[in-house]
Amino acid sequence: MLSQKMADALNAQVNREMYSAYLYMAMSSHSAEKGLKGFANWFMVQYHEEMLHAMKIFEYIQRQGSIAVVGQIDRPPAEWSSPLDMFERTLEHEKKVTAWINDLMELAIAEKDHATRIFLQWYVTEQVEEEENDNDLIAQLKMIGDDKQGLMLLDRELAQRMTTVPTDFSKGVEAAMEAQA
Length: 181
Ligand code: OFO
Hints:
It is a single chain. The chain has helices spanning about 5-35, 35-65, 85-110, 115-145, 150-160, 175-180. It is mainly alpha-helical. The protein has a single domain, classed as Up-down Bundle (Ferritin), CATH 1.20.1260. Helix 1 packs antiparallel against helix 2 and helix 1 runs antiparallel to helix 3. The model has no long low-confidence stretch (mean pLDDT about 95).
């Protein structure tokens, strides 16, 4: 059983994760338009990860007997000045997400909601990985600088990234994750 305050805060996070998915979809489209198919792939894989993040909370709210709200998703930007700009904006966004997850955790602790605290632990760990990935790519892009060949090599590398999270939630998110483990 969630308090109304906790349910509202979790629903707000579902919306933010959906916005993240939307943002990475936009970055994927922008990369494809620039001929960077590997970057486009990387961001589509990221889109799938964000959908999992959103749906996992959506399902948790329902399992706790509360109403999972389907709200309006803001329109993300559509243009970035360079691949480095895209990843710097991505890191900036992920830092905001980390702060939101920390706020949710603080609320769960304040409300002595141990089930939600344990549920959120997964997101705390996930955010470390999200920021680490972005930091690594920013460092590589800074090293590449204006070297077009270096950019093409990185694009080829990013084309290898595969979706490792479940994408079919018809039987439930937790069931899909267990089946894949
Ligand atoms: Fe859901 O971690 Fe990115 O936003």
